[in-house]
Amino acid sequence: MKEQLEKSPGIYQISLRSFTPEGTLRAAMKMLPFVADLGPKYIQLLPVAAADDDEDQRFWSKRQLASGTGNPKNSYRIKDYFAIDEEYGTDEDLLDFVKEAHRLGLRVLLDLVYLHCGPGAVFLEEHPDYVIRNDDGSIHIGQWNFPLLNFDSRGLREYLWSNMVYFVDKFDVDGYRCDVGDGIPLDFWEEGVRRIRAVKPDIFMVNEGSDPEYLSVFDVNYFYDGCFDAVPVALGDRRADEFCRKWEECRRKLPKGGQVLHFIDNHDIASDCYEDRHEKTIGTDGVEALLVLDFLLDGVPFVFNGYEVADDLKHNMFSNRFYGRDASVNWANALCEKGKRRIRLMKELFRLRDEKKALRSQELSWYDHMAPESAAVFCRPDPEGPVFAAINMTDRPVSFEVKDPPEALRGLRPLLAEGGKFFFKGEKMFVQLLGYGYFAGEF
């Protein structure tokens, strides 16, 4: 598992409903050469299984109701785990999508939603024990207003294990992102992963959860106690040293070989932000500084579709060609200067993650410096070439001294710089960063 992480420069998330105006697998497949050219090794699709179309809003999530789209289909409320939702296409479309991705050197992760199902799930009538029941026999509803699956049922477990094998065996997918993964018993995942790795040994597993124990089965945890809350620093609601301290606390909880997937945006955040996307609230320069931080820290960087062109449009995971119609990425930005600049930056970040072994390790050392409220300053050590980074997480210019710098930093060779530089005066090292400026170098 560790070897897979060391080969992975990062994961690119595709929400089919926002990725193209059509919102289909066929339309998304045409965009795969562009995604591959950016440099990720993995793409992760939001759920493509048939979603429940029950219109009874008692069984809609708060986010679904707040969207105002009136769309009964929530991608995370599944009706048929073995069917591709007709909104996205057919079995043949998914097969072709995966084949094209593989041809381009991309690996495909599907999204598994096993904590809950839709109220109209196809198995409920024949297998009432597949969901948790109240004392009166009614279906027990979880926090998102969905029926909770019953992992005490051996039949339910076998059903879902066969579902995991089905998509690997038939569609040749390369792994899964598991929704609320550590809300599901660990022994379920142990057996499920054993079965799919018997079919395809190099399966990659992402847990949407923070329990470090689950890293005995999963390759990476998706959340980790909010440790990558970088945006509040850029908004002025948090200090940079608080961010760094929290990140270090999270790192220390990880078992040997365990890593965390981190990001500044995803389908959930973008939907909740509505029109206040990060590109608007902290600006293009701010987003780029945090993307640099995301890629240079340890763990696995995760990028939401559209960030490579500085997309700032309102997003909503419930909008599609039938409802809402305001969810597509603003691909026209690719023709504008800010979009062109962002594409260049993203390619460079993915390239550095791919080429620099130090950036794929678990090693990280923080440097003591004199701008704790603004800057993250650290080293990614490696015998083949350590990487030094200084990133201003705020819009205020800063100049500061780095305390006790190693002599080797005098030979720092620039890798990445925007509004940032360093210099020595005698034995002292100084860094100057414009607002959201950054500097990274190898020594």
From TrEMBL:
Domain named Glycosyl hydrolase family 13 catalytic is located at 13-346
Mind listing the GO molecular function terms for this protein?
Answer: alpha-amylase activity
Which Pfam families does this chain map to?
Alpha-amylase (PF00128)
Domain of life of the source: Bacteria
What GO biological process terms does the UniProt entry carry, in alphabetical order? oligosaccharide catabolic process
Q: Mind telling me what this protein is named?
A: Glycosyl hydrolase family 13 catalytic domain-containing protein
Where does this protein come from, organism-wise? Candidatus Eisenbergiella merdipullorum
